[in-house]
Design goal:
The protein has 202 residues and is of the alpha+beta class. The protein has eight helices and three strands; from the N terminus they run H-H-H-H-H-H-H-H-E-E-E. The protein folds into three domains: 107 residues, no CATH class; 67 residues, no CATH class; 26 residues, no CATH class.
Length: 202
């Protein structure tokens, strides 16, 4: 899906070179019926550049990709409105890219919130604990859990205040759908009873 969307962005962006070529006389392009000045031609070229930047940053998973995409869509749709009869079908691609940018914005916003919350957890647990884990602390736990803690060598050591887990896996929505690989991380704070979880497709 990532490469499909990036291909749509690239192709749609390159199509805007037609306006640039028309304005500077590099091609006749009778399908573009409106007269285009060189200033307009530069705008068509600039739109192409923004779409290419969007596609590259999207493939590289850069957080800012949706911002350049939004600028490209605004420029593109403005140019399409000015040459509506010959360019109106480009609005379909712009709608697809715009919706993707909105998803990208929400994902980036969630990621920033997650990173902020993780920073809050870590900053509140900077001071090493002086409490030692003893048999008294685990006496009310199930026998199997007690045995696991003993075997892990945790008794007699400082109590854990927070920890991080990273793992890779595959998920699918039902038995008929294809597996999707993902990577995830989880931050757990024992003192604050907080668990933060984030994942993304691999």
């Amino acid at each position: 899906m990532r490469y499909l969307l990036s291909s749509i962005i690239v192709i749609h962006g390159l199509i805007h070179l037609m306006g640039f070529a028309k304005a500077f006389g590099y091609a006749e392009l009778p399908q573009i019926t409106r007269y285009l000045s060189k200033g307009m031609g530069i705008l068509w070229l600039l739109t192409t550049l923004f779409f290419l930047i969007t596609a590259i940053s999207f493939v590289l998973r850069k957080d800012f990709w949706w911002m350049s995409g939004l600028i490209a869509v605004i420029l593109s749709q403005t140019l399409i409105f000015l040459s509506w009869e010959s360019s109106k079908f480009g609005s379909i691609a712009n709608i697809i890219i715009l919706l993707s940018c909105l998803v990208g914005y929400s994902t980036t916003s969630f990621k920033r919130t997650y990173q902020h919350d993780v920073s809050q957890i870590l900053s509140s647990n900077l001071t090493p604990t002086e409490e030692i884990l003893t048999e008294k602390d685990i006496k009310d736990l199930p026998a199997l859990v007690q045995n696991y803690i003993r075997l892990s060598g945790s008794l007699g050591k400082p109590k854990v205040k927070n920890f991080k887990i990273e793992f890779d896996g595959k998920i699918r929505k039902n038995t008929d759908s294809a597996w999707m690989k993902f990577s995830s991380e989880q931050y757990n704070s024992i003192t604050q009873n907080v668990r933060l979880f984030s994942w993304m497709p691999s």
